[in-house]
Every structure is written in C-alpha cells, then in structure tokens.
Amino acid sequence: MGFSRLAETTAPAARIGLGLAAVGRPAYITLGRDRDLPADRTVEAMRRRSQELLDTAYVHGVRYLDAARSYGRAEEFLADWLADHPEVRDVVVGSKWGYTYVADWRTDATTHEVKDHSAAAYERQRGLTDALLGDRLDLYQIHSLTPDSPALTDRALHERLAALAAEGVTIGVSTSGPHQADAIRAALAVETDGAPLFRTFQTTYNLLEPSAGAALVEARDAGRSVIVKEAVANGRLAAPEAAPAAVRQVAEETGVTPDAVALAAVLHRPWANVVLSGAATIPQLRSNLAAATLRLNERQLALLDGLVEEPEAYWRHRAELPWA
C-alpha cells in the first residue's frame, strides 16, 4: 500500500517515525553517544537496543519505521522485529539505497559509508534489502540525493525504480547538503511514462537549517509526501546543557525537554507528514514523543525561528561532527 498508508492512522504519534541510524551500527555522528549507548556495542547489544526502541515506539503509536542499507544492520534488526511480531501489519516500513556501510562494525574506521547512485548499486542493494524485508518494504528511497547525482538523469535507473513502483513500493528520495532545495526541485521534475517517479521526500530540516522549506511546500502542493530527518540537528538541539538558549527557554515554559521543542517546531509545519525520531534510548524516545501533542504559540515559534544558520555553515559544522 506504500507510504500513503500512514494517512489511515489517527494517533498524534503517527506523525513521528522512528529512524534506526543511531542503533543500527556502533558509530554515528549524533552527539552524546558515549552516554546513550553501552561501551561494548556488540551486534547483539545493538540488536537488543533496537528491539526495545521498536517495541516502545509501536506501543506509543509510531507507525513509520526507517532504515537504510548504510545503517549497519538496521534492516536486519528491523526484519527480526517484524518476524517476532507477525501480528503487526499496520506499520509502514521504509529503507534507502545508495550508500554502502564499510566500517565492519568498527567505531574507529576511517570511512564508514561509501556513496554510489548507479543502477548497478541499486540492483545490488535492492537484492540485499529484499532478502531481509521482502514484501514488508513499503518505501524505497535514494539515499542523500544531491543536485549532481547521476540518479537524477539515469533513465535506465528510472525504469528499474518504476518497475518497483509497479509492484506497489513507493519510490522516494532523501536529500542532504546545502543545496537540498535544488535536489528536491530536480527530483520533482523526474517522470517515467508521463507520471512522477518520486513520491516522497525525506529531507534535513530543523530550526538551524530550514533552507529546504520552500521546496518542501512545493513538493506537498504537488501531492508528494514529506518526511523530515535530523530535526534535532544530530543532537545540537537536544542536549539540555547545550541546546540554544531559545530552545531551552521554550522547553522551560512548556515543561518538556529541548528535543521535544525542536521536533514540535517542525511538526507545526503543515507540509510535514512525518518527522523522524533518531532516539538511541527509551527515555530519549519518550521525550521525543512528547512533541506529538505539544502546541507552541506564535511568540515561541517566532523566538525559535531566530536560530537559523547559513546552510553552508550548518553543513560544514555537520561534516566536522565525529563518528563515535
């Protein structure tokens, strides 16, 4: 049924999805992982953590689950959870291809993932995803599309993606980098047999980096769905001691934590279908979920809107975050 299945859910938490980037591999660029995860991040320890998060998310109404080929064993962990819960048929499962995880479960690897948007990479990774998720896959996205990606012009790849769409899988893109708006608009123009190819857009958007907002409005106006990732800016907007003063002020006023304020600010955008939580702990997930029912007033939203950074500066800062 594809990503549109989420429209059938009414729980507020259904607008929050669970992303598995933080728990599918031992190292990532989210701040605070040294206190969020066990020091011995074995495969089994991370599998247990992912299962606990998935259990909690589902019980609290989360219905979109997000993985990727480059998230270490995230697809495997998600497949295990689905197999252990055959009665769960009302979740939407998304994954991504285009990056290969190469760190071999090491936190000190020089390179953690390698990008390849070729048709050959799609065929290889699609087979791996299919072996794990099979017919549970609802949404398959190109991972971190940028304006210079060959995936925007590769007609052979478009035909392969259209064939998958004909099988009932929604086709989308995720974007990253300072020129996300350009990538979104280029992807909106891609068609196969006169029909739009890409139906969902998963984009970095937060209080520090909202530059893709106008393009996302265009996507929604064109009938596409929007998933927001990195709403807490890889932890920069989440830590009580490090979040910007405006976020901490609104958190104090509303009685929630800074991460909930950052997520709620994005949920106030009417074009945002789903906003991802990247929680690595159960308490983090619960505080993230408080955003689903948090209403911010106009003064608070205006205060938060003053946190914007220049896109180039934001993405330089992000690139400097350590894998830990």
TrEMBL record:
SUPFAM superfamilies membership: NAD(P)-linked oxidoreductase
Location of the NADP-dependent oxidoreductase domain: 47-308
Annotated InterPro entries: AKR2_Oxidoreductase (IPR053135), NAD(P)_OxRdtase_dom_sf (IPR036812), NADP_OxRdtase_dom (IPR023210)
Pfam families: Aldo_ket_red
UniProt-recorded name of the protein: Aldo/keto reductase
UniProt organism field: Streptomyces coffeae
